[in-house]
Amino acid sequence: MFRFEDPQYLWLLAIIPFFVLLRMLSGRHRKAKLKRLGDPLLLKQLMPDASVARPRVKFILLLSALTLLILLLARPQMGSKISREQRNGIETIIALDISNSMMANDVVPSRLDKSKMLVENLVDNFTNDRIGLVVFAGDAFVQLPITSDYVSAKMFLQQIDPSLIATQGTDLARAIELSMHSFTQQEKVGKAIIVITDGEDHEGRAIEAAKEAHKKGINVFILGVGDPKGAPIPTGDGGYMTDNTGQTVMTALNETMCREVAKAGSGVYIHVDNTSEAQTRLNNSLAKLQKGETESVIYSEYDEQFQAVGLLVLLLLIVEVCVLEARNPLFKNIKLFQKK
To answer: Is the overall model pTM greater than 0.85, yes or no?
Structure first.
């Protein structure tokens, strides 16, 4: 299994297209200056050693070395050992609401960010358990299949934002139904669906879905995020979302709906506010579930791959230095950079 130990450095890859664009603009500017000096065919005869392809090759080599250097900063690693371990734990699917209303900041820093922090703390509290991630709004999909790889769970969690689902709204039933089918077939293991939402169910059927989950032996916990009094939804540009009449849209936590769904799913409703009380209540509730033997595939003994990447960077830089921009008269009969 391949991974990056410090993936935060990968955003530096965004500068690569900038250098490509800068190179293109520089090339156009150079061509324009040469045209002002005289006829291109005549200039080519006056500069027989000038090469068009060699500077491009040098640029590609440097750009490749820079890309690999950024990857080197992210510390590439590869799992060199696979082991199967017997664990005694539970299975949990987190269904996270990522509709636009979750961007309201009546819970600091926002409903969605607070939910992410809560899930991350929950993962830190897990030892022998399995976890999966489902995201939903007007639709739902599996963000992370159920796994014991907590590092991957945190990585996928950080990538969650409302842009992942184009269909807006809040379909709690769809989220619960998809979560039900995301567990393993293992029996005698406590299974829980943790729905984190502001309770604005636009589609209905959530109570029926929770009852169906309960029949399958799955407990449905509802974590209600936000203020029942309501809050505006930020648009990201300093303003707030408005309706067709220009009025500011207010989104309020629907605690009544949350309690009804949790009751139908034989779970617990927990209100998430700016304290850590919700985290404590959730951990205590999950601790009561039946633990069972599960087999997990674990990638361990991760080896650093920076040596191989570093050698590639060094090799590219050496080749770049050896490639001259002008044709070498000693190798004038060898035409590697032009068509015959």
So the answer is: no
